[in-house]
Specification:
37% of the residues are buried. The protein is built from four helices and 18 strands. The strands form two sheets. It has a 16-stranded antiparallel beta sheet that branches. It has helices at 85-94, 172-176, 262-265, 267-272; strands spanning 14-18, 49-51, 63-65, 71-78, 95-96, 101-102, 107-113, 122-128, 131-148, 151-160, 163-164, 194-200, 216-222, 248-257, 277-289, 292-309, 318-324, 340-345. It has one domain. It is globular. By secondary structure, it is mainly beta. It starts with 13 loop residues before the first strand and ends in an 8-residue tail after the last strand.
Length: 353
C-alpha cells in the first residue's frame, strides 16, 4: 500500500537490510521487515548550534551548524523463534553466523562472538505520516533481553550516520515490498517455555542439571563502540569501531529467585570461592516437523558470579549478577569458549548473507 498519511504508528512499517559501504543506503525489500512493539526513537539529525560571537557585535548576526551527532535507536521487539530481519541485527552483534545445519524439516543457526564487527552494518528505514525516514548506515551494538508480560522481549541498540526524509533509494515501492517470514505467527517466545541451568565451568554437561527456580532474568550483550567520530570532508560520523574489550560487565546475566532456598543459598559460597560457572538458558516452542521443535539456546561457557543478593523482605528472595569471561577450553557439553547462541527455526539462509 502507499505510505500511510495517518500519524497512527501501528500503520507504519519498518525494515533493516545489510549494507556494504558505510554512508551508502541499500534498497529494502522482501524479508527485511522488522516488527516493533513501540517507538524506535528515530528523530531528525541533531546539530550543535555554533553562533559567531566576535568582537564589535552586540547581537548574534550569523551561526553555523557543527557536525551531526550520531543517530541512536533502541528497537523494542517481542522476540520470536522466527526472527526475520531482527535476527540479522542480533547476528551482527555476535559477528559470526553462517549457513545453518539442515535438521530435515528445520534449520539450526549458530551465532558466535567474533573478535570485532567492523563492516557489519545496514540500512534502516521506517514510515512516518506521509514520509519515509531513512538512515543509510546503522551499526548494531547491543541486545538486552528481559521478560515483560510473560514474553521474552529485546531492546536492540544501533548507532547510525544520518537521518533523511527524501531518500532516492527507499521510497514507497521499497517499503511496500517489505515482508516477514511466512511462518512468523505464533512464534513469540514465552516465559513458560524457558529453563535456566548452571553448574561449575569444570563440571559435567550443564544440560543434565536440574533447572533453577528463576522468576525473572535479564541478559545483555554489548559491543563497546565509540560514540561517533568524524573525518574531515563530512559532517556525518564514520563507521563506529570498538574501543574496549568484549565480555565482563558488557555481557551479563541477572537471575532473580522467588525464594531463598538451599540451592541458591549455596551460591554465596560459590561466589566467595570464585568458582566460575557455565550456564544454559533455553526456550523450547512448538513442534516444527518430525522431532524438531522451535528452540533458542544461550550458552555461557564461563561466567563469574559478580554479586549474589538475598533481600530480607517478608519472603526472602535471592538473585545473582554474573558476567561473561572466555573459557580456556570448550567446557564439557559446549562447542565454544565464548558466549554463543543456537536457534532452530525454518529460515534456510545465513542471517548474515
Amino acid at each position: 500500500m502507499a505510505t500511510p498519511t495517518s500519524p497512527e504508528r501501528r500503520l507504519h512499517a519498518r525494515g533493516f537490510k545489510k549494507a556494504t559501504t558505510w554512508g551508502t543506503a541499500v534498497a529494502l525489500g522482501a524479508t527485511d521487515e522488522v516488527l516493533l512493539n513501540g517507538n524506535s526513537g528515530l528523530q531528525p539529525p541533531s546539530y550543535p548550534y555554533v553562533p559567531a560571537k566576535e568582537s564589535d557585535h552586540a547581537f548574534i548576526k550569523e551561526a553555523d551548524f557543527g557536525n551531526q551527532g550520531p543517530i541512536d535507536l533502541a528497537l523494542p521487539i517481542d522476540w520470536r523463534y522466527e526472527m526475520g530481519a531482527a535476527g540479522r541485527i542480533l547476528a551482527m552483534i555476535f559477528g559470526t553466523a553462517g549457513d545453518p545445519t539442515d535438521l530435515t524439516g528445520a534449520y539450526k543457526h549458530t551465532f558466535q562472538w567474533k573478535d570485532e564487527i567492523s563492516a557489519l552494518f545496514g540500512t534502516w528505514a521506517e514510515e512516518r505520516a506521509g514520509k519515509i525516514f531513512e538512515v543509510a548506515s546503522m551499526k548494531p551494538y547491543k541486545a538486552e533481553f528481559s521478560f515483560v508480560d510473560a514474553l521474552l522481549k529485546v531492546a536492540l541498540s544501533l548507532r547510525g550516520n544520518a537521518c533523511i526524509d527524501n531518500s532516492a533509494t527507499n521510497g514507497a515501492t521499497q517499503i511496500d515490498a517489505l515482508t516477514l517470514p511466512s511462518s512468523f505467527l505464533n512464534t513469540r517466545i514465552r516465559f513458560k517455555q524457558g529453563t535456566v541451568k548452571m553448574n561449575a565451568e569444570s563440571g559435567g554437561d550443564v544440560s543434565g542439571e536440574t533447572a533453577l527456580q528463576v522468576n525473572d532474568l535479564r541478559i545483555s550483550f554489548e559491543r563497546p563502540i565509540d560514540g561517533g567520530v568524524h573525518a574531515v570532508g563530512s559532517d556525518k560520523i564514520i563507521e563506529p569501531l570498538e574501543e574496549g574489550h568484549s565480555g565482563g560487565d558488557l555481557i551479563a546475566v541477572r537471575l532473580d529467585f522467588p525464594r531463598m532456598n538451599t540451592v541458591n543459598a549455596a551460591f554465596f559460597q560459590t561466589f566467595t570461592a570464585e568458582t566460575e560457572q557455565k550456564m544454559l538458558i533455553q526456550f523450547t516452542g512448538a513442534l516444527i516437523a518430525g522431532s524438531n521443535y522451535y528452540d533458542l539456546k544461550f550458552y555461557f561457557p564461563r561466567l563469574r558470579i559478580k554479586q549474589p543478593t538475598y533481600d530480607a523482605e517478608e519472603i526472602v528472595k535471592g538473585g545473582l549478577d554474573l558476567v561473561a569471561e572466555e573459557a580456556a577450553t570448550n567446557p564439557t557439553g559446549m562447542s565454544y569458549k565464548r558466549p554463543y547462541l543456537e536457534i532452530v527455526n525454518l529460515q534456510i539462509a545465513d542471517y548474515l548473507a
